[in-house]
Amino acid sequence: MIRLKNIEKVYRTSTIETLALNSISLEVAKGEFLSIMGPSGCGKSTLLNIMGLLDEPSKGDISVGGESIRDFSDKKIARFRNQKLGFIFQSYHLINDLPVLDNVELPLLYRNVSGDERTRLATEALQKVGLGNRMKHYPSQLSGGQKQRVAIARAIVGNPEIILADEPTGNLDSAMGNEIMEILINLNKQEGTTIVMVTHDENMAKKTSRLVRLFDGSQVL
Amino acid sequence: MLKHLFKLIWKKKKSNFLMMLEIFVSFLILFAVWSLSVYNYRNYAQPSGLDSENVWAVFLNFNTDKDSLKIIYKDLVRQKLKSHPEVEAFSFSSSNLPYSFSSMNNGFTYKKKDISSQVMEVDPDYTKVLKLSLAEGRWFTEADKAAKIKPLIITRHLKEALFGNENALGKITGEKDDRKQVIGIVECFKYGNDFQKPENCAFTPSGDWQTDLLIRVKPGTSIDSEAKIAKEISQLGKDWSLEIQHLDKMKATKNRIVWVPILILLIVCGFLIFNVALGLFGVLFQTISHRKQEIGVRRAIGATKSHILWQFIGETLVIATFGLTLGIFFAMQFPLLNVFDVDKSTYLLGILFAVITVYLLVITCALFPSRQASQIYPAVALHEE
């Protein structure tokens, strides 16, 4: 599904060069639930951003579904992210000026989907995460767990093949975290969605089908 | 997408209201400046109806109040001018020469209408001096001066005000001893300046007391010839004095009185608009820097660079449209209420040009910050708290 080959990421300033990822090779199979663990600053989020085409590697190849993304234009990358990927972030990244329903509709706004269809699909996604009764609310009126469920609804509304989750339970207490994890496991098992999750939490990582550990930008397991 | 933009704008209505107000005020200023410019340009584009080049305005002082002497003196001047080969034509005139600061108004009556008009009392050769062309009828001759009913030549504007669609030629205005018969119509006669709108003006034969003079000289007449003619005329009588001014310079002076304030207004307006543009630019920059996370999210879920670019430009255009709608509502009152008696199309063009200017201004101000927003790397934008 996703294949990373000898990925290297170097951050350069005028004085310092930081190696964030060092020769990472990784393959994620279709339907897999992979977790990435490691201490802070080891390059977990960088790796996830590269997998989600939000960032470019300094070296190495990425191919998704057998297709190398090296020569993808901005338009093609955007279309790919829109149709194949769903993102969940630790700090939710909801747009506070839009009600919940509109936040969930966002990915469909960049597809040729009619307004009524957008509303129907977003409503369905919100019902899946148990927020069918919070559609008119604004993010500021929701708890952290509810916000993360809205973010999950936004990630799944376009029916993506892969969900990339960057510490989705990081800002939540354990009960809320377990609820979110439950939703992700269900998505993986029932819908067959491939999920790659970055986490600090060993317990959460144990619930996934495979674990990859990073240390100082290198893969250690 | 438009509905989506409306929702975003509505949610930030307080801060957007200030931007809308700024655009509304800018529109009103631009509307005033454009309407004034269109009004003056349209007037300027109209033919003036007279040729002021190589024409001198001569202000003669015979140093006498006696009309009988003035008749004799004027004949002397005529004889002298005829002897000069440089002089092509000349005409005595009432003191309200074209482009002078004098004015002489009279009322003309016809079928209970009483229309006020500028009146110029001139000689038959006045038409040759200013190269006036008649649209209808004829100019008066020496023979007409002796007629019981005085001949009258009027501008098209006065003809329409006094006679409407009727044929004016042969019509008589006034009563008893003050009767005048229309014998000719000139299309236009801008006696004030080149920016003057078509106005009422009438020409009748001069009396004996007028001592101002218009002289058309041959092209290339030297300053020495001018001095010679001036000297010869002033030496015709005792204590005579005269002053010669060139009519095209008088015109330039009168034109300057109109266009200099317009130019000052344009500079002030340009400065105001520049400040508005800087303000808009700053506000948009700040807005975009506050919305980096949103940009990152949008990029992550499928927005292209051009989606981001057009979203921010689109939001600004929607806000501008609100400001303009309010502005247009107020501006439309001017043509509807016929304010200042200006042609409706002048106001409508003023509105159109002001709308175009505001949109161009807004797009220009929004383009650079929006372009910067579109270039933000999604991973970087998402990383910012």
Automatic annotation (TrEMBL), chain A:
CDD domains: ABC_MJ0796_LolCDE_FtsE. Signal peptide: none annotated. Residues 2-220 form the ABC transporter domain. InterPro entries: AAA+_ATPase, ABC_transporter-like_ATP-bd, ABC_transporter-like_CS, MacB-like_ATP-bd, P-loop_NTPase. GO terms for molecular function: ATP binding; ATP hydrolysis activity; transmembrane transporter activity. The keyword Flavoprotein does not apply. It holds the Pfam family ABC_tran. Belongs to the ABC transporter superfamily. Macrolide exporter (TC 3.A.1.122) family. This is Putative ABC transport system ATP-binding protein. It comes from Pseudarcicella hirudinis.
TrEMBL record, chain B:
The chain crosses the membrane at residues 21-41, 258-287, 308-334, 346-368. Pfam families: FtsX, MacB_PCD. Residues 268-377 form the ABC3 transporter permease C-terminal domain. GO terms for cellular component: plasma membrane. It is found in: Cell membrane. GO terms for molecular function: transmembrane transporter activity. Coiled coil: none annotated. It is a multi-pass membrane protein. Keywords: Cell membrane, Membrane, Transmembrane, Transmembrane helix. Residues 26-225 form the MacB-like periplasmic core domain. It comes from the Bacteria. Belongs to the ABC-4 integral membrane protein family. This is Putative ABC transport system permease protein.
